[in-house]
Structure formats: structure tokens, C-alpha cells
Design goal:
The protein has six helices and ten strands; from the N terminus they run E-E-E-H-E-E-H-E-H-H-H-E-H-E-E-E. With about 220 residues, it is of the alpha/beta class. The protein binds adenosine-5'-triphosphate and magnesium ion (MG). Magnesium ion (MG) binds near residues 46, 47 and 168.
């Protein structure tokens, strides 16, 4: 059964007198525990599509069925709750809270989840361990490398056990090896935690790891 299905998504933006048709009937479907990669040239609409799949933006037409519900038709408060409970986000530039250490950054995000007290502490530590940062719990963002910070951001994004993780060029600011580590982490997440991952990237070395590769070009999507 598919966990996420986008059907005939159209999205255009108006800028002055011109209208840019970014997504022109995009459809895709993915199952639980799959690692999907979204590629395409700069400006092709990858972020636009990710925002729509993650209930951060609405399409002009088309539907997004997530876990059996068309999320484009939900109220803002329901979309907000859905994002908090079932979705996780990782962005290109890491947005950690600078005066909180690694553990506190993850623990803080968990405050709006079902994890309480000791369970919350345990889950935050478990996620940091999963991303290989067991020895960096007390480090502040300014005391960690770019790759380490991105891994804290990933730990934070998965701590509440989302069903779907959306990652927008999470490796763009990392060197090749660190980027590869992050990618392998996503693959691991998909397999071990049964999380569906959709990741945008320009990185061609992703080919071997992805379960499915989508390419956006001229407003339409191709899959391989
Ligand atoms: N809010 C907006 N208003 C007007 N135009 C927008 C808006 N958001 C995106 N666009 C336009 O839509 C197109 C797609 O943008 P998008 O950010 O989705 O591309 P992308 O594939 O993520 O590119 P990149 O690889 O550079 O991140 C661009 O031409 C952009 O200018
Ligand atoms: Mg983008």
C-alpha cells in the first residue's frame, strides 16, 4: 500500500506580470520504508514539490494522499498537527539552536511529541547515537563540523518517529564523504525505522543507494 501518493499536482507562481508554471501535472507514489530521491536542475521545482508533499504549501490543483488522507484539503491546524506528528524535515542549511548542545537540540524538539520525562531523554540519546554522535551530546553547534551539525538536524527530524522524512539537499554543504555518510544514514533509516524518505539532491553518486529516482524537468516528473 502506498503511504504517499501525489496525483496530478499543478503549481504556478505569479511574479509581476508573468506566471511561472513550475509543476505541470506531477504524480508520484511511494511505499513505507523506501528511500526516494528527487533530482532535477536548479529551478525545476524540487523544493516546491517537497513543500507541497510536506503540507507546507498547497498545489493549485491535484491531491496529495498521505496515510489515506488528502492533506491538501485539511484545515491549517490539522496540517500543522500532521507535520508535527507524522512528518520530519531536514533542510539544506542546518538550523540548530546555537545556545543548545546537541542533546538539548533534539530533546527540545521532542517537547511537542508524545515522549515525556525519562522516555524523552532516552529517545533523544538514542537518535544521536543512531547518527553516530554519542560522543558529541554536550557539544554546541559552534563546536561541531558541518557534517556533525547536519547529523544532529537529522536526529532531531527523526526523533518523534515520523512516517515520512523530507530532506531538501541535506548534503549540499558537505564534502563528498560526509555527504555519503548522511545518505547512508537515510537509507538505514528507511530500512531500520521503516521511514519513507524523499530527498532532493544534485549529487549523482546517490544512484546506487536510492530505491527510486525521480527527475523533475520542465514541470514534469520521470521516474527510474
Ligand atoms: N514563492 C515563489 N514566488 C515566485 N516564484 C517562485 C516561488 N517559489 C519558487 N518560485 C519559482 O519556482 C521555480 C522552482 O523553484 P524551486 O525552489 O522549487 O526550485 P528547485 O528545483 O528547488 O531549485 P534548486 O535546485 O536551485 O533548489 C523557480 O523558478 C522559482 O523562481
Ligand atoms: Mg531547492
Amino acid at each position: 500500500m502506498s503511504i504517499l501518493q501525489a496525483v496530478n499536482i499543478n503549481r504556478s507562481f505569479k511574479s509581476g506580470n508573468t506566471v511561472v508554471n513550475v509543476l505541470k501535472g506531477v504524480s508520484l507514489s511511494t511505499e513505507r520504508g523506501k528511500f526516494n530521491v528527487l533530482m532535477g536542475p536548479s529551478g525545476s521545482g524540487k523544493t516546491t514539490l517537497l513543500n507541497i508533499l510536506g503540507a507546507l504549501d498547497k498545489p493549485d490543483s491535484g491531491s496529495v494522499i498521505f496515510d489515506g488522507i488528502d492533506i491538501t484539503r485539511l484545515s491549517e491546524s490539522k496540517r500543522d498537527a500532521l507535520r508535527r506528528q507524522k512528518l520530519g524535515f531536514v533542510f539544506q542549511s542546518v538550523a540548530l539552536v546555537s545556545n543548545m548542545n546537541a542533546f538539548e537540540n533534539v530533546d527540545f524538539a521532542l517537547r511537542i511529541s508524545k515522549y515525556k520525562g525519562r522516555e524523552r531523554k532516552k529517545r533523544a540519546e538514542e537518535c544521536l547515537e543512531f547518527v553516530g554522535l554519542k560522543k558529541r551530546l554536550k557539544h554546541y553547534p559552534g563546536e561541531m563540523s558541518g557534517g556533525e551539525q547536519q547529523r544532529v538536524a537529522i536526529a532531531r527530524a527523526i526523533a518523534h518517529k515520523p512516517m515520512l522524512l523530507l530532506a531538501d539537499e541535506p548534503t549540499a554543504e558537505l564534502d563528498t564523504n560526509t555527504g555519503l555518510r548522511v545518505v547512508k544514514l537515510f537509507k538505514d533509516l528507511a530500512i531500520k525505522e521503516n521511514i519513507t524518505v524523499i530527498m532532493c539532491t544534485h549529487d549523482p553518486c546517490i544512484m546506487d543507494v536510492a530505491d527510486k529516482i525521480y527527475t523533475l524537468e520542465d514541470g514534469v516528473i520521470y521516474s527510474a
